[in-house]
Amino acid sequence: MNTASAPPSRPSRRGPGRWTALAASLLLATGGLAVTGPSPADAAADPVAVTVNANAGLATVPDTALGVNHAIWDSQLGTNETSDLLKAAGVRMMRYPGGSYADIYHWRDHTAPGGYVAPNTDFDTFMAAARRVGAQPMIIANYGTGSPAEAADWVRYANVTKGYGAKWWTVGNENYGNGHYGSAWEADDHPDKSASQYARLVVDYADAMKAVDPTVKVGAVLTMPGNWPDGITAGSDPGPWNRTVLSIAGPKIDFVDVHWYPGGTAAESLSRTAHIDEAAHLLRDQLARYAGPNAARIGISFTELNVGTGQNTQPGALFLADAYSDLLENGVFTVQWWNVHNGIGTVTEVAGQTDYGDFGLLSSGGCTADNSVCEPPLNTPFAPYHGLSMMNLFARPGDQFVRAATDEPLVTAHAVRRADGDLAVLLVNKDPANARPVTIDYAGFTPSAAAPTTYSLTNGASGVVTGQSGSAGSATLPAYSLTTLVLRPSSPVTAHPAPPGQPTASGVTDRSATISWSPAPPKGAPIAKYEVYRQNGTVSEQLGETAGTSFTVDNLVPGTRYTLNVLTRDTAGKVSWSSSPVTFTTAGPAESSCTIRLTTASDWGNGWVGNVEIVNNGANPVDGWTLTWSWPTSWQQVSSGWNATWTQAGRTVTVASTDDNRRIAAGGSTTAGFVGAYSGPNVPPTGFVLNGTPCTVG
Fold it and tell me: Please, which residues have CB within 8 angstroms of residue 292's CB and are 6 or more apart in sequence?
């Protein structure tokens, strides 16, 4: 299908809240203990099993990790009070001039025709606020009603005239919302509103901006895999938005910019953080496929994020901490909440707390139109602000995320290792009614017997509570809470060797891959060897070891995704931290008696029509066949099919021949089709089996 219905409803980007000049409240409470919760009678009976594997390294926390949006209709944008609150919460990147306003904003005269511009929100005021916060700016160049020359002049003013050193610049905001796919909220004066035209102009913007300052980083707008309009091809574009933009602009850009509003109820928003790993995987795959040579250099930013229910209350805080952690684990270089101030919306009650429908981190201090309900005083922190403060306490620049998981969907876990040897574990209890006892098992880390430092944010609390109590092995998580445990190691880490450099994969076949890395810098005892491990959930499986800096892994399974780490072991027997991970997918069998070609006939954003061609490569005919594959996720399914008998059990799809097509001649083929549905990233299957034989993938 070439058209689509409207996307999910979006937060307001247009109207500022009504401001009241009142004092702000305190952001961080102290005293009680984070692991103290309801009595055991209130807690769920069975402890949740949490596993942390400190040897299974993920991404390192960048210095731009914690970000927020500022908007030119926010009169508090440049105030010291607002900036000091953001600094205290650990904000290190701020976006300007604010969502869809960016595509109507003209920086020279500080105007946004058709929109409201508050006093004291010009670019210099924003930069002064960014410097007070200690945050890097991310600036949105006007694509909708601007030009490459206007953007280049802005770079010149910022970095040549003023010496601000503004590094990060995005071309436009949500430009796929210009009507090209049937819904229009984003300003776009170009007669040609196609993805192809956007991409061609991104090239022009990048050339013009880098001609002024070659050090700037220029980003292009993409859409979140599994969210509208992902998968939809419109007009004469050669493919969906992401593919089209990357295939044209990929060689010129330095990063891609993505937004995500999962929508739904509080429970639905909180559950959809499970989509992030696969969405990040698909984004990396799209970059590798379509962005040209050296696509690994292209970063990913998530510059708008918020929930559909509970924006000011605990669901927003839980979602923020869980989503920021998941995205940063996947190597995203910044995650930015929408918004600092936004204004009162529809007032409801969520989990016993008043929610003002305000997408801001801080109260605007305004009232509903009839003055029946008013927000707390101006700059009072809402729950997501405290969630951001919790992230600042949990994951600091330079920390390395490591694998953590639980056996209960309502409880999620994240962990980081710190340079001083500490391990911090963030536990998210998404159950609004029950406390959850947890037991925690550690691999690659032995905690000391000392009580951990604890931080907790509970439902309705006015801030994060800090203390020191309990043990490393167990805790009770209050209902609807965030809890962080910071653990000291049982022995000093100074004597351990350094980890090796970032590994890469090459020569990937159906059964093998060569992993290479730069050597670990000298530290302490000489290096004896490097050990290569596969991350299998939170379990590390050793695949081999070598004294060199490359290793060929054999006996892999065709059509399978692998994530590997490398550790250093010295002659004293001590082991380093994990390297950063490398992920690759093995090909289908190099040779087989069958080939499967899965193609997309049409896609409308949450469903698609697929065709499966089965080719008989053998010397003999096939008389009766059964094809199976497994979807990579639990949210993908076959709704109906034709030219075969289609069934699905769990993630496994079974396709059986009918009397009309049971015979496939040697060298011949047959085709069956289906309607598929998905409610998250639509990750293609990679392994197909025909009558028990793995097939090549065409």
Answer: 250, 251
Q: Which residues contact 298 (CB under 8 A, 6 or more apart)?
A: 250, 253, 254, 255, 256, 287, 291
Full-model pTM = 0.93
Whole-number Å distance between alpha carbons of 299 and 328: 12
491-502 pLDDT per residue, tens: 887 778 999 999
554 versus 24: which is more confidently predicted?
A: 554
Question: What is the reported pLDDT for 494?
Answer: 73
Assigned token pair, 170: 């995005």
- Neighbouring-strand partners of residue 489: 447
Neighbours of 374 (CB within 10 A): 16
| Mean pLDDT score across all residues of the chain | 93
| Cα–Cα distances in angstroms (integers) from residue 308 to residues 234, 302, 315, 389, in the given order | 28, 17, 9, 21
Q: Which residues pair with 35 in a beta bridge?
A: none
Neighbour tally for 288: CB within 10 Å: 14
C-alpha span between 266 and 534 (Å, rounded): 35
Residue 19 has pLDDT above 80, yes or no: no
**pLDDT tens per residue across span 147-204:** 999 999 999 999 999 999 999 999 999 999 999 999 999 999 999 999 999 999 999 9
Q: Which of 361, 367, 356 is nearest to 20 (CA)?
A: 367
Q: Is the pLDDT of residue 17 over 90?
A: no
Distance, in Å, from the CA atom of 628 to the CA atom of 695, rounded to the nearest integer, reads 10
The backbone torsions φ and ψ at residue 389, rounded to the nearest 5 degrees and listed phi first, read -60, -40
DSSP summary character for residue 288 = H
Tokens of 204: 């022009």
Phi, psi values for residue 162, rounded to 5°: -95, -15
Gap between the Cα atoms of 512 and 546, Å rounded: 16
> Which contiguous run of DSSP H or E holds residue 85?
helix 80-88
Q: Is the peptide bond before 478 cis (omega within 30 degrees of 0)?
A: no
Edge to edge, the sheet with strand 550-553 lists 504-506, 513-516, 550-553
Q: For the CA atoms of the chain, what is the radius of gyration?
A: 26
Angle at the Cα of 152 from the Cα atoms of 147 and 158, rounded to 5 degrees: 130
DSSP letter at 327 equals: H
Percentage with pLDDT > 70 across the chain: 94
Give dist(CA 157, CA 659) in Å, integer: 72
Say if residues 566 and 543 touch (Cβ distance below 8 Å). no
With contact defined as beta carbons under 8 Å apart, do 27 and 84 qualify? Answer: no
- The pair of structure tokens assigned to 179 is 């009507």
Structure tokens at 481: 């809470």
Q: Which DSSP symbol is given to 3?
A: -
The whole-angstrom separation of Cα 605 and Cα 563 is 28
636 in Cβ contact with 676 (< 8 Å): yes
